[in-house]
Amino acid sequence: MRAVWRSISIMNLRKDTKSKVIYDEGRSLRERASKSRQRRKKELRSKVILINSGLALIIIMVILVWKVVSINSQGGSDVNMADAPKHKAEAESDTSQNKKDKKQEEKASPSPAPTEAPSGQDMWLRKDLDPDKPMVALTFDDGPYAPVTEKILKVLEKYNARATFFCVGNRIPSYTEVVKKAYSQGCQIASHTYEHKVLNNLKKNQINAQIKKTDRELQKVVGCSTTALRPPGGFVNDRVKKAVKIPMVCWNVDSEDWKSRNTKKVLGRCRTIEDGDIVLMHDLYPTTAKAVTALVPQLHKKGFQMVTVDELFYYKGIKAEGGTVYYSGK
Question: Is 300 marked active-site?
Fold first, then answer.
């Protein structure tokens, strides 16, 4: 019986011991879990503190930098304000001195007067020609007529040559552009009456009407009055001389282009051109344009300066007068 009781006691003791061990193990796990949580909380707090400290440090640095910049800016502004009167005085002194120097230079060497571009009648009078070289005045009657006049202008421009176009007044409105072109190239635009009437057959008032009407048309296109008249056919009597108030220009070399209408014959008639000659042609015929295309290079090669009538008279010392007839520059 005692043995049985001892056996039961031993079994109970084992149960108690086992229960205690289990309890101790559970308590140990709870304690470790609690300590782990506390450790994580401490680590989290440390991180938060570090982050906040870093942010605070950054803010402090930004504030310090801003203050330093503000102080420097204010200091620089103060310096500039302090130096401003000095700089202003120096600038005013320099400006005053420059003005004095400029005035002295102007007195010492006066600036040349500005050169104005030629206009009006000055367009057909060049002042830079060589008076020692031969000159010839090519003249064209009865135009303008664009198909022919433009070809003549083309070759004149190529060789820096000029000519005089005696225009019939009632043709000008139909060919204003070619008249403008001739004028812009420095060619002289002159009168050949309004209706190409022989002036010898007209009364004084009729003669004046022919000239004035043509002059009005020319002024509309080129903006200036004509300085020369070619009487149709070259016919002039005393009544015409008394009525006309501008120089009348005829010719001493007749190409007879109106008669032959042949390029070779026109060139043949112009073969003996001399210094001071005035050549008669007409810008109506295609054969004349062809002849001029060949004649201008030939004259250029011989050393001729192809000039306007006004240029010819200017360089030959001829003071053309109204009512007087001129045949050449000789």
Answer: no
228, 249 Cβ separation under 8 angstroms: yes
Distance CA 41, CA 37 (A): 6
In residues, how long is the chain?
A: 330
H/E run at residue 136 = strand 135-141
- Return the ∠ at Cα 267 (arms to 263 and 270), rounded to 5°: 145
Q: Check 142, 282, 283, 310 and give the catalytic one.
A: 282
pLDDT digits (tens, 9 = 90+) for 72-83: 555 444 434 444
- Determine the Cα–Cα distance for residues 170 and 321; give it in Å rounded to an integer: 26
Helices within 109-197 (DSSP H only): 146-158, 176-184
Mean of pLDDT values over 301-311 = 97
Q: DSSP letter for 126, please.
A: -
User: If we measure between CA atoms, which residue out of 192, 261, 179, 263 comes closest to residue 221?
Assistant: 179
Active site residue 257: no
